[in-house]
Amino acid sequence: MSRTLVLVRHGQSEWNLKNLFTGWKDPGLTDKGVEEAKDAGRRLKAGGFSFDIAFTSELSRAQRTLTLMLEELGQTGLETIRDVALNERDYGDLSGLNKDDAREKWGEEQVHVWRRSYDTPPPGGESLKDTGARVWPYYIHDILPKVLAGGTVLVAAHGNSLRALVMALDGLTGEEIVGQEIATGVPIVYRLNADSTVAEKQVLEG
């Protein structure tokens, strides 16, 4: 019984590079992001991983990352489920703005609160807690049953949707998750017990 869950944040996007708030906007991957995705696939292949099903968001940067990983794994025909529940946090009025410009407009402290607090959303957007409120039920109802049935499941998503998942899996508080970063293109491997608790966690860094 495998009961393995692998989380991967998409490779660097064009807006990551430009220091813009992205959220539900849909820029593509940079050349570096493409390489990060391929490298993630190569690392998973070297680790002997073969997947039963994959989940990703409705945003193209996560979908492209997944496609590139599956090409490296030789699993291009893998069943894949796309769902808005795994989308990046919605940054609302900040979406598309340069982070430095936002600091000039609203002040360093306010922007820091919007970016890094657990439950304070930016104007018109979602907090990390709001993001979790859509990610956690989807995980419980759609992803977790596949893992507990003995599957090896791949999730390609975003920094904040994955932070919400990591928060639940690692049993972190709102204060603890605030300081956690999810690196682009670095697989995080969880092996679960039959009761859905974490037996083992491994980060496949280069």
What is the compact description of this entry?
It contains 8 helices and 6 strands; from the N terminus they run βααβαβαααβααββ. The chain is an alpha/beta fold and 206 residues long. It has a single domain (4-19, 26-90, 132-203), classed as Phosphoglycerate mutase-like (Rossmann fold).
Question: Would you mind describing this structure in some detail?
Answer:
With 206 residues, the protein is an alpha/beta fold. It has one domain: Phosphoglycerate mutase-like (Rossmann fold, 3-Layer(aba) Sandwich). 43% of the residues lie in helices and 15% in strands. Strands 3-2-4-1-5-6 form a 6-stranded mixed sheet. A hairpin with a 5-residue loop joins strand 5 and strand 6. Helix 2 crosses helix 3. The radius of gyration is 16 Å and the shape is globular. The mean pLDDT is 96. It holds the Pfam family His_Phos_1. Belongs to the phosphoglycerate mutase family. BPG-dependent PGAM subfamily. It is an enzyme of class 5 (isomerase). This is 2,3-bisphosphoglycerate-dependent phosphoglycerate mutase.
The fraction of residues in strands falls at 5-15%
Taken from the alpha-carbon principal axes, the silhouette is globular
- The overall pLDDT average reads 96
Oligomer status: single chain
Percent range of helical residues: 40-55%
Query: How many beta-strand segments?
Result: 6
Strand order of the largest sheet: 3-2-4-1-5-6
Supply the CATH architecture: 3-Layer(aba) Sandwich
CATH homology group: Phosphoglycerate mutase-like
Could you say what the CATH topology is called? Rossmann fold
Low-confidence stretches: none
Which structural category do the helix and sheet elements fall into?
Answer: alpha/beta
Tell me the Rg in angstroms: 16 Å
Main beta sheet: 6 strands, mixed
Q: What's the tally of helices? A: 8
GO molecular function: phosphoglycerate mutase activity
Subunit structure: Homodimer.
Catalytic activity: (2R)-2-phosphoglycerate = (2R)-3-phosphoglycerate
InterPro entries: His_Pase_superF_clade-1, His_PPase_superfam, PG/BPGM_mutase_AS, Phosphogly_mut1
